[in-house]
Specification:
With 138 residues, the chain is α+β, with helices and mostly antiparallel strands. The chain is built from three helices and six strands; from the N terminus they run H-H-H-E-E-E-E-E-E.
Length: 138
């Protein structure tokens, strides 16, 4: 007799481990899942805070990819808004008084730092200090 329940033994036999398991997981994952995993690893490698761990009024340094960039006036003032995604959650990045910024475009990776605010239930960084990451493979 074994101390391990029968259903756990069956589960262990069905799930291969190691390199083969990782290859199967990678093949069965969607493109979005793979990109999210890559972004989470990049965030960790750059020493930045994950967006999901940011709280209101906290000064943070975050990294991710810009999903969308739009021009949307706020109180009559032009505002360039972008959605930054790091694989965990989105963060709105807003540059007040700007209509465009060279290099700020969808698909671009950036590192941004500043104080997080909560607006309508979403995390927002207003006028952050930012660094454009190189295009393509690093």
């Amino acid at each position: 007799m074994s101390a391990v329940p029968r259903h756990e033994k069956a589960g262990r036999a069905e799930r291969p481990s190691g390199r083969f398991r990782r290859m199967l997981d990678r093949l069965s994952s969607s493109q979005e899942d793979l990109e999210s995993q890559e972004l989470r690893e990049d965030t960790q490698a750059t020493g930045c805070t994950r967006i999901s761990e940011c709280s209101d009024r906290q000064i943070v340094k975050v990294a991710g990819t810009l999903r969308t960039v739009t021009l949307r006036p706020r109180a009559g003032v032009p505002a360039l808004e972008a959605e930054l995604f790091d694989g965990t959650e989105p963060l709105d990045v807003v540059w007040l008084g700007r209509r465009s910024i060279v290099g700020i475009e969808p698909g671009r990776r950036i590192i941004a730092s500043g104080r997080v605010a909560m607006s309508h239930g979403r995390r927002v960084l207003f006028n952050p200090i930012y660094e454009l990451r190189p295009l393509g493979k690093e």
